[in-house]
Amino acid sequence: MRPSGRQLNQMRNVSFERGYSKHAEGSCLVKFGDTHVLCTATLEERVPPWLRNAGKGWVTAEYGMLPRATGERMRREASAGKQGGRTLEIQRLIGRSLRAVVDLEALGERQISIDCDVIQADGGTRTASITGAWIALYDCLKWMEARSMVKTDKVLKDHVAAISCGIFADQPVIDLDYLEDSSAETDANFVMTGTGGIVEIQGTAEGKPFSQDEFLTLMDLARNGIAELVAMQKTTVGAA
After folding, report:
1. Which single residue of 93, 154, 190, 193 could bond 197 by disulfide (Cβ 3.0 to 4.6 Å)?
2. What is the CATH number of domain 14-237?
3. What pTM was estimated for this model as a whole?
4. Is 86 assigned to a binding site?
5. pLDDT band at 12 (very low <50, low <70, confident <90, very high)
6. Which among 34, 30, 3, 36 is positioned nearest to 15, based on CA atoms?
7. In degrees, to the nearest 5, what angle opens at C-alpha 79 toward C-alphas 75 and 80?
8. What is the DSSP string of 5-68?
9. 126 marked as part of a ligand binding site
């Protein structure tokens, strides 16, 4: 039995609230159970120096956790003078995941910056960030399309979403919350596109190695879960 009472293949309740931020070109408050992340997309009429005059744009991401996103207050990384390794790794993952489904040439010489701010954490913050960031990106592109800057369907090639899977108490489970994640024998994050393409897989054995068969079981769980998330994304952006 999982601590939450969920079935092995049952994700937490997932929701998306578009237009959460008044000022951003695109925004989404995404909730995976008790993990809540605010994703905003900002259009900038510039590209990084190394991309100038290259005829294409860029999508990048920043990630952070508010001090009381967890059970005990965390010191702001800004006050420490630098970002931690975990933060840098996650924001690079978010950026890579979004660029995998963006035609950077069709975007033109512009940059879209995605900010993912964790308001409340209960496991799976990176997967929630990627899934919600896609909606913020979509709405930013729609904002641009309304001003005849781009065609959304030319820039955004596919959906992208992410989910965690792992082995907890010798059972393969999907969408681990903190209690499961903190004591899982295996923890993995899967990022996939709406058409089933694999963007990234991060898998780690926490003590006991996992077998190929166990990995394939986790992969099947992830594919099904991401298919559900993509269906929710489609419903969310199609409802506006």
Report:
1. 193
2. 3.30.230.70
3. 0.96
4. yes
5. very high
6. 30
7. 80
8. ---TTPPPPEEEEET-SSSSSEEEEEEETTEEEEEEEEEES---GGGTTSS--EEEEEEEE-TT
9. yes
